Amino acid sequence: MGHWLVGTECLAACRFALSPLVETVAAVGVLAEIRPEPWRRHWLATHQPAFRAHLATAPEPAAWLAARRPSDWPAALRLPVPDPDADPRLLDLTAPALPPALTELLDWTWQHVVGPEWPARLRALRTDLTARRERAARHGWPAALPHLGPQHRWLPDGRLRLTSPDLPPPPHPAPALLLVPTSARHGWLLPDESHTRLAVVYPASAAPVPGPRTPPASLGRLLGSARAELLADLDRPRDTTQLAVRTGLSPAAVDDHLTVLLDARLVAATSTAGRYYRTALAEALLSAQPAG
Is-contact 191 197, C-beta < 8 A? Predict the structure, then answer.
């Protein structure tokens, strides 16, 4: 088991990168998940039948995925470290040294699933990294990225300890650090071959594509405008700070409204502490509202 300690200077100099390839890998992981998270149900109903039909014609990648745990196989792909200056609108499948069958699966997933959604995904990922930059500036990186994965730990002095069975001994000097948001359930580490750069892929949000934020007027009359807006904003898991930034409410007011929505079973908490999403009951309530 390898451990890297990332110091505060390295964290201060870190950059974010947006990667179509990482997000395509994340989408394959979600589509292949046996027990997906509940807030993904509508997206899966749209895309999973075609994905499973395609996988049935491709036994090699199907066997490769089945032989690995969902939390492990993205790291096993040995993807290249994303370039933070590259155009995030373009998928490059030429760099990874992947078996042709896996390359074909990623290309299919991009063409049929991720590519058509990419503008919305890109907006969601950019929103996430902007919010984390702002929180890091105000409260420090442990507050901005508290949940990087169960194997990683923030130390009391502000350093980050990264743990992975595939990590070599830590290099000197410290590598350049990249933070890569993704909609995957689990993050992973991507060191480059020279160990001069390290990408930390972290789960930004669970839902693949955000829905419209504007709540129906009828829902505002029923719940109150603030609770209706919060419910519309919980199309994917968010924490109190994100909701406060997006709605303009104070964190205390967000907490109060969430308590009411939780009691009404319109909102549920994720397994990651402090993050909430709307339930199937809330989805039914929203879909039943008239437009306008």
Answer: yes
